[in-house]
Amino acid sequence: MHDATILPGAPYPLGATVTPGGVNFSLYTHSATQVDLLLFDSEDAPQPSRVIALDLGENRTFYYWHCLVPEIGHGQVYGYRVHGPFDPEK
């Protein structure tokens, strides 16, 4: 299910980039089957305050997962939850 409060965003540049419209997030991953963007209220928050499941059709370009979150800005604490095969030897 797509989070209606986010926009597709852009695959470039990588990382979190503050723009006039919010923050664009872009992550490269070759083998991910799903990516969740986790937003935290503070650095020491034990759980995310918001989890945004990125949509395979709208938020992925080749191996880049991306979205634009309009209502946040500089200083937002975030992380990713990446789903897919776990095979460190490959």
What's this, in brief?
Helix content is 0%, strand content 42%. By secondary structure, it is mainly beta.
Structural notes for this entry:
With 90 residues, the chain is mainly β. The relative contact order is 0.34. It has a four-stranded antiparallel sheet, with no helix packed on it. Strands 4-3-7 form a three-stranded antiparallel sheet, with no helix packed on it. A hairpin with a 2-residue loop joins strand 1 and strand 2. It is built from no helices and seven strands. The mean pLDDT is 94. Helices cover 0% and strands 42% of the residues.
Principal-axes geometry comes out as globular
Percent helix, as a range, is under 10%
Largest sheet: 4 strands, antiparallel
Count of runs of 4 or more consecutive helical residues: 0
Give the beta-strand count: 7
Any key phrases for this structure?
90 residues, mainly beta, 4-stranded antiparallel sheet, 3-stranded antiparallel sheet, globular
